[in-house]
Amino acid sequence: MVIAAVSGSLSLALTNLNRFLANPTVVSIQKDFRNWMNHLPAATGCLNEKISYEKAKKYIKSEWNVEPTDEQFSYFYDFVKTISNTTYFNLGELKRFEDDKTLAAVDMVKLVTEVHPDLSGQLVTFEKRYKAKWKLILTELGICITFNSKFANLLEIRNAGVLNNSEPEDNILKCHYLNRLCYARYDSDPNYPLKYHIHSYLDIAHINLNQFHQANISDEVEINYKMTETDASPDIRYLSPTQRRCRFDNEPLTNNLPYYSTTICFVMCRYEMALKLCGCKPFFYHFLDGKTCDIRGLLCLSGHADIITQSPLRVGCKCAQPCNLISYLPQIPKFTRWNKGGFLDQRITFRWGLIHPTTRYRRDILFGFGDLVVSLGGTFNLFLGISFITVYEIAYIIIEGVFRAKNSERRSKIIKVVPITEEITHL
């Protein structure tokens, strides 16, 4: 009977322990949407041509003392233009500059920053008191601009090489469910059209993006996005990422970066592959440690670009789902072309808005540590009649027995030593 009771209690205890370790969370549905503050989608825009001719002239003059009238100017201009538009997909265009030693020491981050065109457009949002502004960032897509992204400070070029704190939550634009005009609009320079990528404020732009929105001269493009959100209860933070099967944005995989998101994890995988294959990193990973590739290093990466730019899952990159997950589904775009002259046909307008959700998913604890303690206590009490006080008494009796045995052994040694000591004293 004792063996059967012990076996039964251990079997149920292990079952509950495995349940706690493997799947202690549950996803529930929330419907109190009238009280929600929803995040406006973040936007990243990249110019089709990331170089200003006037700025390029000044840069070439300051670096190599070459004027536009010199024969070598077109050669250096082609180099500057190639670097400015560099991504993983066009690294092979640097082949003609491979043996030029005058280009070996070029600071590529400084180059792309100094020749990037100035932004002359106007960014406005539904919140009139909010000072909306773009931030210049360097990504796998090259130099771009971003708005309403939590990790914009990480990619910002202003402090290259310095891991900045993430954007405070208070600076991320939100709007109440009852506000049906939740939008942002950018009237850009017609000379510099952009490609836009709309994403969550917890994501960054990366090379595997396959959905861009292009607005051309005299076009006004309006797209609304339907939002789907899964947030996490604060109570699940004490669970390990393996237990809850997700990671919070302040739980990085390595010390190299202070934040986590699925897209940051993808970038980290490609960064590690670049270091492994060629021993250096591309200059657009300016926020990560390691040797920056020169021209030959970039050409080495061009030979492995097909591997590096594959889907991360194909190359064995396992990235956990974020605990706070927001995705946006684009609705049918609305296009308007202004072609009757005047001011409107001399600009490019891109407007993105939010369609508020009426359902939200929430990760919560289904079987927490407290439930585990209660279940273990009930199991052992049912089968063995053991409670916390019983365990305490057993431990107390064992410890007391050890001390008594030690004291008894010490007293017996003293009794044996005393007669010998007295006899020596008598002699």
Question: What is this structure's SSE topology?
Answer:
Elements: H1 2-22, E1 25-30, E2 37-39, E3 42-47, H2 53-64, H3 73-84, H4 108-114, E4 122-125, E5 135-139, E6 142-147, H5 152-155, E7 174-176, E8 183-188, E9 194-199, E10 213-214, E11 219-232, H6 241-244, H7 262-278, H8 295-303, H9 305-308, E12 325-330, E13 334-337, E14 348-355, E15 360-365, H10 369-384, H11 388-426
Parallel strand pairs: 11-14, 11-15
Antiparallel strand pairs: 1-15, 2-7, 3-6, 3-9, 4-8, 5-6, 8-14, 9-10, 11-12, 11-13
Tell me about this structure.
It is found in: Membrane. This protein has 427 residues and is α+β, with helices and mostly antiparallel strands. The chain folds into two domains: 2-24 and 369-426; 27-365, no CATH class. It has helices at 2-22, 53-64, 73-84, 108-114, 152-155, 241-244, 262-278, 295-303, 305-308, 369-384, 388-426, and strands at 25-30, 37-39, 42-47, 122-125, 135-139, 142-147, 174-176, 183-188, 194-199, 213-214, 219-232, 325-330, 334-337, 348-355, 360-365. Strands 1, 4, 8, 11, 12, 13, 14 and 15 form an eight-stranded mixed sheet that branches. It has a five-stranded antiparallel sheet with strand order 5-6-3-9-10. A two-stranded antiparallel ribbon has the order 2-7. The radius of gyration is 32 Å and the shape is elongated. The termini are far apart.
